[in-house]
Amino acid sequence: xxxxxxxxxxxxxxxxxxxxxxxxxxxxxxxxxxxxxxxxxxxxxxxxxxxxxxxxxxxxxxxxxxxxxxxxxxxxxxxxxxxxxxxxxxxxxxxxxxxxxxxxxxxxxxxxxxxxxxxxxxxxxxxxxxxxxxxxxxxxxxxxxxxxxxxxxxxxxxxxxxxxxxxxxxxxxxxxxxxxxxxxxxxxxxxxxxxxxxxxxxxxxxxxxxxxxxxxxxxxxxxxxxxxxxxxxxxxxxxxxxxxxxxxxxxxxxxxxxxxxxxxxxxxxxxxxxxxxxxxxxxxxxxxxxxxxxxxxxxxxxxxxxxxxxxxxxxxxxxxxxxxxxxxxxxxxxxxxxxxxxxxxxxxxxxxxxxxxxxxxxx
Length: 363
Fold this sequence. Notes:
This protein has four helices and 22 strands. The protein folds into two domains: 17-241, Sulfite Oxidase, Chain A, domain 2 (Alpha-Beta Complex); 248-358, Immunoglobulin-like, CATH 2.60.40. The protein has helices spanning 75-79, 124-131, 167-172, 221-224, and strands at residues 17-20, 25-27, 61-65, 71-73, 84-91, 114-123, 139-148, 157-164, 174-179, 182-183, 193-195, 208-214, 228-229, 240-241, 248-253, 263-272, 278-284, 292-293, 295-296, 307-315, 319-329, 352-358. The strands form six sheets. Strands 4-3-12-7-8 form a five-stranded mixed sheet.
């Protein structure tokens, strides 16, 4: 890492970037996140409804529906259960929506609705074993304590999402009590948050108060209206659910419109995917005409986590440059030049491009 690119002290970093005030939606200053683990205070916040008020002494997790033994667990009981650690990158499915062409409605996230954290909690499979889920169950519905009005509904709703009762998926999920070795901050789901490794952020339900096993697919508004890929707004014929994250990457230095000088530099960025790991990142400095391999520089290479990368670039000619980065994962998925457009602006994993200017040095 070269002198002009040295990271600043975390205390000097900018804070979260507001995208919506009510409910609060805050983007990470991702160009300044230089640690593999995103600090809690710099982790993006995505909300659909106002923050709930939680009274921990009366809070409990209820597990019911298609189970033999409906059961409640309080916070202390959950803390006494077997705990596991999972390092998981979470990306909002609307990340990069502001870069969609043509534009789509919704929070206009740039590139910072993504973060990587260590989550500690109870394996979901362990909890399910306590209640003995019936064979008639096909899905689990996770209900958050956050509630409020939607623009398209007259009555108050809770944020709810379901997952298929797939054994492999259930084995991966945890009910997290900690984020980066601290109790999960209130804004990120205290006291309990679902972590679904490899899935977009909407699946990681916060402030969970209820898990319901159901014998039929869940059709709540945050499942059937939001978080589906559709071509025309309002036309849900053939809608495809938003589920696993797509292979994606971003350039974090230099940033958009930045003027840098002639000489040696280190282009930096992040890459991640849903299943598997990042196997390769390539960088182009000539608008995609030629591509060169970047070095993967993360201290850890774990499934479900992002990867740092760097590319040495010695600038010998002044002018305007169009930098691009594209990632490939271990399942042979490659970032497309342009992601398939959809009316809600989800899953934009288009190749990230940065325009920069290198001025002539005057003597």
